[in-house]
Every structure is written in structure tokens, then in C-alpha cells.
Amino acid sequence: MMHMSSELNETHDDAVQPLPLVHVGDPVLRQVCNDWDGNDTPELRELIDRMVATMHDAPGVGVAAPQVGVNLRLAVLEDMYDVPESFAQAREREKLELMVILNPSYEPIGNRTATHYEGCLSMPGYTAAVERPADIRATWLGLDGQQHTRELSGWQARIFQHETDHLAGIIYIDKAHIRSICTDENYAHMWAAPTADEAREALHF
Ligand code: ZN
């Protein structure tokens, strides 16, 4: 091999070591991250590969650089999990192929919002309901330095917002209905439904 291509790295994904996840309380999660300077380096590619391995290992649908202790406006997103049709419909959850986003930002399109339970790999054991814009215009740079813009809706928009918020030092719990917070165990036993409606009524959020 002359050099490692990204295709090769993907093929050998299992061999890439995940990175330890940083949990709430660590100040790196509360910093506004530095912009990417536009340099595509082997170190950056290795970091991305290891973040993808971390996301798969967790498992999760996104990892932002500060979650592995790196102050950089970078996140990886991917959602190829199979979910029950009722959940997929209520949450507008569709498959999302791997996205590597550098210096990302988003803005809502229109006024439609959605409230659903979400969690964070940096705050294990808990889940809470967050009202977010349902439709966004997402903008980011690719590794080639090109700017990309894409309209995202539903769960895909939620993932993009959650990870991009991390890069501004914002954790989902900052935006959550605080009375909605559940342990994962209670959520699984009591409120694991396609919508948050029953939990909202019972927990008064
Ligand atoms: Zn998170």
C-alpha cells in the first residue's frame, strides 16, 4: 500500500481503536471549540477514524470532538440502525449515512418543532425530552475544504443539532425540559414510546 485511503480505513474499521469518552463535569465539554483551520492532515484523519470507531462502539449516532477531549469544531454522525416502524414514523427517523462535519452550523427552516427524548454519550444513564426545530438548513465544511449545505428534518436534524451544539459548549440537558429527565432504566420500563406524550402528561413537563 502506498497510502491509506479513507475507503481502506472504513473497510478496516474494526481495527481502529475507539477513544475514551469524556463525561459531564469535564470543562472541555463547556468550551466553545476552535474552528478547523482547513488543513487536511494525517492526524485529523486518524482522529476522525477513531471518533467513528467510538461512535460505533458506544453505540451512538454521533460523536463531537470535545466528547473525546479535543477542542475542535468537528463531529461525526451516522444512523444506520433499524428501529420499529412506529418509532421511525413518529420521530421522522430515517437512515443517515456517515457525515463528517467541520465548522458546522445550522438554522431553523420555518417554525415547526418536535419534542422527543434524547440522550448523550457524555451523560450516560439519563435521557430527557428536548424541543428542537424539526427542519433545519445545515452547513459545514468537508475535509476537502468545500462548503456543504443540506436541508435536514426529523431525527436527522436532531442529531445534527445535538452534535453541533456540543461544539459551542452546549449539552442537550441545557435545552431539555428538566422535569422530563429519566434514568435509562425508568425510561425503558415506563416511557419508551414513539412519542413523549404520555411521559409529558405524567411528569408534567
Ligand atoms: Zn451528546
Keywords for this structure?
binds zinc ion, alpha+beta, 3-stranded antiparallel sheet, globular, 5-stranded antiparallel sheet, single chain
Walkthrough of the structure:
With 205 residues, the protein is of the alpha+beta class. 33% of the residues are buried. The longest helix is centred in the N-terminal third of the chain and has 16 residues, at 42-57. A hairpin with a 7-residue loop joins strand 4 (113-118) and strand 5. The chain has six helices and eight strands. The mean pLDDT is 94. Strands 1-2-3-6-7 form a five-stranded antiparallel β-sheet, sandwiched between helices. The protein has helices spanning 6-11, 42-57, 85-90, 154-166, 184-191, 197-203; strands spanning 62-64, 74-79, 96-108, 113-118, 126-133, 135-141, 147-153, 182-183. Zinc ion is lined by residues 120-122, 162, 166.
Intertermini distance:
57 Å
**Strand share of the residues?**
25-35%
User: Poorly predicted ranges (pLDDT <50, ≥5 residues)?
Assistant: none
Mean pLDDT over the residues:
94
Structural class: alpha+beta
Morphology call:
globular
- How many beta-strand segments? 8
Which strand order do you get reading across the main beta sheet? 1-2-3-6-7
Hetero groups: zinc ion
* Percent in helix: 25-40%
Discrete helix count: 6
Alpha-carbon Rg, integer: 17 Å
The helix/strand series, from N terminus to C terminus, equals HHEEHEEEEEHEHH
Main sheet?
5 strands, antiparallel
What's the topology here?
Blueprint (H helix, E strand, L loop, with lengths): L5 H6 L30 H16 L4 E3 L9 E6 L5 H6 L5 E13 L4 E6 L7 E8 L1 E7 L5 E7 H13 L15 E2 H8 L5 H7 L2
Antiparallel strand pairs: 1-2, 2-3, 3-6, 4-5, 5-8, 6-7
Zinc ion (ZN) binds next to helix 4.
